[in-house]
Amino acid sequence: MLMRKVVIFLTMLMVWSSYSYAERIKDIANVGGVRSNHLIGYGLVVGLTGSGDKTPFAEQSLLSMLNKFGIHMPAGVKTNAKNIAAVAVHAELPAFAKPGQKIDITVSSLGNAKSLRGGSLILTPLKGVDGNVYALAQGNLVVGGLDASGADGSRITINVPSVGRIPDGAMVERTVNTGFELGNTISLNLKRSDFTTANNLVTAINDLLGEGTASAVDANTVEVMAPRIPNQRVSFLSVLENIEVVPGESSARVIVNSRTGTVVIGQHVRVSPAAVTHGGLTVKITEQVDVSQGNPFAGGDTAVTPDSLISVEEIGSGHMFKFPKGVSLDDIVQAVNKVGAAPGDLVAILEALKQSGALKADLMII
């Protein structure tokens, strides 16, 4: 039943992918320079209910903060605070974000804090890769996890209580220059490099906006002539990003997820003439426990001894099937289905076909 569903699903994918669908430029390409930037910072979460850090760097961070407010602790004296946690704060700064706008942040414990629930992040600068401060973060955490423990050592943890978020928790202080308004051209970078897609993109733009408006630099980048005035450039891009383009078909490829056993076979996959036989062995190990009763007159003791039963069972008929020249996706799956192979067995068969040179496709293990 499972293999039948896999056959139907892959066959439907093959039928659907046989048609060419036009996509908008905004869905297949990005405007060069228009991108988000990662920010990171180090701070303290306070107000926890005894679930905080017990690490030296959390203690040092607390003393440093107190010194900034004029509170100087004697040398060698520890606060033994349990309501603080040293955290890493990270965020994503959107393109064109202006000072005064707010962005979401994620707060993660760096030490051994059990939970950040109920805590508040105190003022934390967020820096970019260049070392400049681009935002300031502060606020009350929203934690979806739960951690509870009992006096007898029992403990329950739901989700991840050591990570929280603060919606609109950081305020932008500096703008990142994108270079959007510079020059008389705009670069469109394809999300998936392909010569056919790049050529179709150039053709679609030139057909609508005039010959010579767009030119391909390589399989990934297309340069488009654009107005210099920012207002006109925005209007131009509004038209440009909604132009529909037929993307090029991808190369023949088989994707195998080694963790889940999922196999996706592209419609252009072909197999040279090959004969395949597939069988398997199932090894079953059953653990039993026997009780050995010692002789009471000889001072023997009762003992529990393990007893393992091992059996080997051959699965499948082991029949051989043959792939003729140029078989398609449906033929491959139907042939494997006839011998009763499971989806996991399909992976082994595809790998063997690739090693023999019969599989005319890229086999990618992810």
Describe the protein:
- The protein has 366 residues and is α+β, with helices and mostly antiparallel strands.
- It folds into 3 domains: 2-9 and 253-292 and 300-365, no CATH class; 37-172, no CATH class; 181-245.
- It contains 7 helices and 23 strands.
- It has a 6-stranded antiparallel barrel with strand order 3-4-5-10-7-6. A 4-stranded antiparallel beta sheet has the order 2-11-13-12. It has a 3-stranded mixed beta sheet with strand order 16-15-23, with helices on one face.
- Helix 1 packs antiparallel against helix 6 (329-338).
- The two termini are 26 Å apart.
- 20% of the residues are buried.
Count of the domains: 3
Q: How many helical stretches?
A: 7
Mean pLDDT: 77
The end-to-end span amounts to 26 Å
Radius of gyration: 32 Å
Low confidence ranges: 13-19, 281-285
User: How many distinct beta strands?
Assistant: 23
User: In this structure, how is the largest beta sheet organized?
Assistant: 6 strands, antiparallel, barrel
List keywords for this structure.
alpha+beta; six-stranded antiparallel beta barrel; four-stranded antiparallel β-sheet; 7 helices; 23 strands
Kindly summarize this structure in a few lines.
It contains seven helices and 23 strands.
List the helices and strands and how they pair.
Elements lengths: L1 H16 L5 E2 H4 E3 L5 E10 L9 H13 L15 E10 L8 E8 L10 E8 L5 E8 L5 E4 L5 E4 L4 E10 L12 E6 L4 H15 L4 E3 L4 E5 L4 H11 L3 E2 L7 E4 L6 E3 L4 E2 L2 E4 L2 E13 L10 E13 L4 E4 L5 H10 L4 H14 L2 E2 L1 E4 L1
Parallel strand pairs: 15-23
Antiparallel strand pairs: 1-14, 2-11, 3-4, 3-6, 4-5, 5-10, 6-7, 7-10, 8-9, 11-13, 12-13, 15-16, 17-22, 18-21, 19-20
Helix pairs in contact: 1-6
